């Protein structure tokens, strides 16, 4: 089995003038090529820190992070679109940074804009777009570089619920159909369950892995999509089990 990344006994401490905070404590997991893995856990449990470690933005205090690619795409909670660039030019940005903005790739971006319903808005500026359209544009920009590993840090959290459902369904279907290795950090249990092949549940800080779930929907009719998964009996069972693992009622 080929793995796109592996975390071995990772711990992370942050230092201030007065004290030390341990954010992550002895976490180990692997992500297979083409697998979609979600990480859920309480607020402040170090979920986003794990993505930063995988991306190389932070270094672990102990342990080892192995990433078997140099091609990583990272989507944050905010879309990070440049307000002075139109949609098309925003989507070219990653290619420009990598000196890959040749004519062939420009044509590819235009096709992606069409695929994601943004062709008629390619000359619009971010301020002229809805939240859902901005996230679609950010996704096109991220996928245009054809990353081997996609890191998603609560990318839909700023959207209203209806838009979040629609965009989550679109993105989950795209990731599955294109077999893009993905790690999604989210607070949304239904989102994690419906999109993922596996869900990893973190404890409170310092984060440890409390439980892992292999997500299978044998009762999902036809092609698996996030929206179809939400209508199955299996979905409800996963939701209840993860809800209990997170001790949500005790937190409240």
Topology at a glance:
Layout: E1 3-15, E2 20-32, E3 36-40, H1 47-55, E4 62-67, E5 72-75, H2 87-91, H3 93-97, H4 103-115, H5 131-144, E6 149-153, H6 161-177, E7 181-185, H7 189-195, E8 198-202, E9 209-214, H8 226-230, H9 233-246, H10 248-251
Parallel strand pairs: 3-7, 3-8, 5-6, 6-7
Antiparallel strand pairs: 1-2, 1-4, 8-9
Helix pairs in contact: 4-5, 5-6, 7-9
Could you explain how this protein is built, in words?
This protein is of the alpha/beta class and 252 residues long. It folds into two domains: 3-71 and 148-251, Rossmann fold (3-Layer(aba) Sandwich); 79-146, no CATH class. The chain contains ten helices and nine strands. The protein has helices at 47-55, 87-91, 93-97, 103-115, 131-144, 161-177, 189-195, 226-230, 233-246, 248-251, and strands spanning 3-15, 20-32, 36-40, 62-67, 72-75, 149-153, 181-185, 198-202, 209-214. A six-stranded mixed beta sheet has the order 5-6-7-3-8-9, with helices on both faces. It has a three-stranded antiparallel beta sheet with strand order 2-1-4. Helix 6 links the parallel strand 6 (149-153) and strand 7 (181-185). Helix 4 (103-115) packs antiparallel against helix 5 (131-144). The N and C termini lie far apart (41 Å).
